[in-house]
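Lab meeting, action items carried over

1. Structure of the two-component assembly. Owner: GW. Status: complete.
Input record:
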Amino acid sequence: MELQRDIQALQNAGINLATISYDSPETLKRFADAFGITFPMLSDVGSTVIKRFDLLNPVPEWGLEDGLDDPALQETFRTFVSVTQPNEMFVGIAFPGTFILDSDGVVDERHFENFYIERNTVSSVLIRRGAGIEPVEATRVSTAQINMTSYSSNQEIAVGNRFSLVVDIEPLEDMHVYAPGADDYQIVNLRLDPNPYIRTLPVKYPASVMYYFEPFDENIPVYLDPFTLVQEVILDGERETQQALADQDSITLTGSLDYQACDDAICYLPTSIPVSWTMQLRGLVFRLPGQ
Amino acid sequence: MRKTFKYVGRFLLISGLMMSFSANAQRETIDLSTRGPQVGESIPQFSLPDQNGDLWTQDSILGTNGAMLVFVRSAEW
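Predicted assembly:
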């Protein structure tokens, strides 16, 4: 299970991990033993706490009551429950999602994806929180103006996963790289080539600083210190994508880092560095072995 | 008499349809952004057993920098 693999990174960041589901402790015990789970998997039989959180998924009951003849309900069922038929066993499930709590138990971040197998990867959450991860496989490129390291938050992904493509950029001495708002220059940008199996979220930029560029007597937003761009990506969870990727061992995403850098005297031409990320594909674990 | 039954039957059928229609109409559109505690809010209190029978609360799950609390559908399917 993905969460177990990432637990060390979470613990290093001082973040505990727990799951809540409507399963019995016995079911959870079987699962934990089968997959070597060490974090607490909390059992909410009867879904009392799930209801208290206002996260009870009502759609399984709608499906049982009405069947799936109504196309709108069928679509809702497919999105929030399953591509299979309504079944008693779905009643009581929670909407899957993640809360990141601070040390006082206050919600710092929350992630509830609409499609039921879209899930944040732990590494992606850590990167967003600035906790960082050690890139296992990174690509390093140096130009006359910057050093760039690119990596994926996850070496292995599954359909429905939400993960991050990360680029660490270090402007060389006296260099600055143009940040959003510097409209007369090539603003640093991570651009992904179109891929039918992914959806992308807007690139996340850190705060920039204002820089006085004497030759033109202007103030412009730039990055002077090392900074990180994060491109969150969702590997589509639709059935068609699952089928299309079923025979593939890996997926490669390509794109470029576009930027323009200047020092205090010279402005260099806009530059584009090709980048690519290859991630292994794996199936989602839905069942216990032998079931 | 037979006609009356027919009318009653039709009435029941129509009311049945209306009831099922209104039941559908009452179903809310699911908007996950409004579900559950929001950013800046505390989570509800709870005390739940884990896979080993140990009890955990909203406070005891927290590490020095907090916790990641993941709602999952089921471990079984």
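2. GW to write a short summary for the group page. Key points so far: The helical segments of chain B are 2-26. Residues 2-57 of chain B form one domain.
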